[in-house]
Design goal:
With 172 residues, this protein is α+β, with helices and mostly antiparallel strands. Helices cover 33% and strands 20% of the residues.
Length: 172
């Protein structure tokens, strides 16, 4: 009986116990759409960096952090607090090739220090942070296009020291 029901369920005529036979017609419903790709996190920790997938925004040609970046910086603070194995972080400021080299170096340094100050004001120990600007000396993209120059204007968070025993514990 089970075998007959199994083969009958694949189409054709189906009969239920005590009922009449009826024909199954039409198309089955379409499968549900695939789930959307996972949202890219704004802040992620890798083995060597705290990666931010958004830019920290500054006032034009200044080291003042714009208000719309405060939530991103708050996420960075939370991420650092949630990863106690991270012991030292180097905050690096970078610039595009627009403008004078010396000006870019000083501006990127002031911006890195402004980010460090924000983190300290929000509970990160100053002793675990360093901040330095590199100006346009470490580009990650071509400075010949506006898109490339925009990518080069960035702040990076490099993990300089971490407790590898705590990292291993967390992974288990």
């Amino acid at each position: 009986m089970g075998l007959a029901l199994g083969s009958a369920a694949c189409g054709g005529v189906t009969a239920f116990e005590g009922g009449r036979a009826f024909a199954i017609v039409g198309q089955p419903p379409a499968p549900p759409p695939p789930p959307p790709p996972p949202e890219k996190k704004r802040v992620e920790v890798t083995a060597k960096q705290i990666v931010i997938n958004e830019k920290i925004q500054f006032e034009h040609d200044k080291a003042a952090i714009r208000g719309e970046s405060h939530s991103l910086l708050n996420e960075i603070v939370d991420t650092i607090k949630k990863h106690p194995h991270i012991k030292k972080i180097a905050i690096e400021g970078h610039a595009s090739s627009d403008g004078a080299d010396d000006h870019n170096l000083k501006l990127s340094d002031r911006r890195a220090k402004a980010v460090m100050e924000y983190l300290v004001q929000h509970g990160i120990a100053q002793g675990m942070l360093t901040a330095k600007g590199f100006g346009e000396t470490k580009p990650i993209a071509d400075n010949e296009s506006e898109d490339g120059r925009e990518k080069n204007r960035r702040v990076e968070f490099n993990i300089v020291e971490q407790d590898t025993a705590k990292t291993a514990e967390k992974e288990q």
